[in-house]
Amino acid sequence: MLYYLTKRGELVMEAVFLFFCTLLVWIMTPGIALFYGGMVRRKNVLSTAMHSFGAMAVISILWVVIGYSLAFSPGNGFIGGTEWAFLHNVGFAANDSYSDALPHILFMMFQMTFAILTVAIISGAFAERMNFSAYLIFIVLWSLFVYAPIAHWVWGDGGWLSKLGALDFAGGNVVHISSGVSGLVLALMIGKRKEADNSAPHSLPLTLIGGTLVWFGWYGFNVGSALTIDNVAMAAFINTNTAAAAGIIGWSAVEWLTNKRPTILGTISGAIAGLVSITPAAGFVSVPGSLIIGLVGGAICFWGVFWLKGKIKYDDALDAFGLHGIGGIWGGIATGLFATLKVNDGGANGLFYGDPSLLLKQVIAIVVTLVFAAAVTAIITLIIKLFVPIRVDQDQEFKGLDLTLHGEKAYQD
């Protein structure tokens, strides 16, 4: 009897833990709305926020109807089946494929917050110029044909990248690389904003508040991916904060050397860069590894945002690719370098711990994710263009999307 009560208490504690982590990840999407909203011009702040809240509405419905089933139900190595459509047979009882303790329905909700956030991240690339109706169609198709397959490859029952042995603790491939490269493709296909060279953040305090909420929610994002409170979860907790702090230092150091002064926008961007970089590695690496990952992540994302974007001259408005794409790629490679069985015996040893094969597996996963997400995003965009204007017209862009698409103004003059 005492054993039963103790065991039940442990199960309840784990469920409460993941419930709280789910709420933390949920708050990241409104955080993205504020983070992105502060970085655009004042005439586009509400339309930018609508991308995040639109994702919360549309993907929440899509996920319970079919998205979760395609991503996580048993299928083949590339896509799940339809047996969990409309959450059929997804109830309170645990599913042993993912956890023998947690309610299956809770695991579904936790994963839903990831699917919503990923779509919201993409929107930063085409801010201030995409038609909202085209955006809604895009996120439905992208979630079904890009997000669900990649999630199944990495985390699903029988996914081929999982069988290969590639590691992605909390979404380096699934969330950040897929959203970053898809945002880049969209930015290239939609074209540059008319006033791209003269754009500047209209409210850095708003961006700072949003970025802080994203950082706060990231603890649920990474720590919750352990699915239980154990040594791996605590390693992910410490590594997440360490990498975020190191990302600030890495970004600010390069910014200080390059521009002769550190900025608050650079500080919060560096934190996000560090968080993105540690995401695939959070539960697999030691503290020294997370420190290096965050430090390099901050520096390399600064390079992506300011040098690479300037060199190629694409208009990734809010640096979805510069932060999430580049940071995710580095994080995936770094996992292949710094992962160690000493931290997580369910992972693998990386190159610096004696096994170079993990690095090869990580590179394969990264390349496949990049190519697949880019190709399918391009196809989806071309199809949408046949039926709906994907970009607003010049007059709408000049007047601002808040007023012309939504009939609202963020600030009353």
List key phrases describing it:
mainly alpha, globular, Ammonium transporter fold, single chain, 69% helix, 413 residues, 14 helices, disordered N terminus
Task: Please outline what is shown here.
The chain has 413 residues and is mainly α. Helix content is 69%, strand content 0%. The longest helix is centred in the first third of the chain and has 38 residues, at 2-39.
Give a verbal description of the structure:
Its main location: membrane. InterPro entries: Ammonium/urea_transptr, Ammonium_transpt, Ammonium_transpt_CS, NH4_transpt_AmtB-like_dom, RhesusRHD. This is Ammonium transporter. GO terms for molecular function: ammonium channel activity. It is globular and about 55 Å long. Residues 1-5 have low confidence and may be disordered. The chain has a single domain (9-406), classed as Ammonium transporter fold (Orthogonal Bundle), CATH 1.10.3430.10. By secondary structure, the protein is mainly α. It is built from 14 helices and no strands.
